Amino acid sequence: MKRHKAIQFIYRIWKEWWKTAAIIVFVIIPLKSSIADWNWVPSGSMKPTILEGDLIYVNKLAYDLRFPLTFNRLAEWSKPQRGDIVVCFSPDDGIRLVKRVIGLPGDTIESRSNVLFINGHPLSYTPNDAKCAEGLASGLKNRAVFATEDLDGYEHTVMSIPSIPAMRNFGPVTVPQGDYFVMGDNRDNSRDSRYFGFMEGRAIVGKAKAVIVSFDKTDKYQPRLERFFTPLK
User: Fold this and answer.
1) Per annotation, catalytic residue among 34, 45, 111, 214
2) Is 45 a catalytic residue?
3) Does pTM surpass 0.90?
4) Does residue 217 contact residue 53 with C-beta atoms inside 8 Å?
5) 44-90: pLDDT as tens digits
6) CA neighbours within 13 Å on the CB side: how many for 4?
7) What pLDDT, in 10s, does the model give residues 125-142?
8) 99, 111, 160, 214: which is the annotated catalytic residue?
9) d(Cα 191, Cα 26) in Å, to the nearest integer?
10) Do the beta carbons of residue 135 and residue 51 sit within 8 Å?
11) Is 131 among the residues known to form the active site?
């Protein structure tokens, strides 16, 4: 009797929810996997560009079309460019990451005291004002140094934290064909290609385009309204 009632209950649930389940399995999952996605950012490796608690929009069609839930390409029409903010998977442990493309296939990358050199030429850095630090905890603002990095005409803000140990010198290394060199904008607190090596092109699955919404994890998840619907650069 109990088994019969349990079967009836399961049947009623299935009857009510099968359409929703079908939409999730056959529409939402393939859409998120191959066309467009949205990801919460749990870490601060891309500060001050992206903050913990940001929900970012990811264009999965920026470079190619893939078979859902796989790395298999059905078509390719573009490749990551220097300066792109990309979603990729760590070669170390497969964790989803958000990083900036610094080096393209064939580039030689070097860092000297946090100054990047690409193909032997140093990038240009100019001091940045306090506006770039909006949304950061006051303790971090006081310890960090901010600058605008000119990545071959692609300007964006980077930060360093002189008080903590970090890999500020490396290379020169040459990026193999088919691979990329990626880094976080938070240069002294980012696990990136300096540590795990080059990023395979196939492991880059989309381009981060904008912050959809943002909530401050350090302040009772208060909304950061000024970050809602803002483009990433």
Assistant:
1) 45
2) yes
3) no
4) yes
5) 999 999 999 999 999 989 998 877 767 777 888 899 999 999 999 99
6) 1
7) 998 876 777 778 777 888
8) 99
9) 35
10) yes
11) no
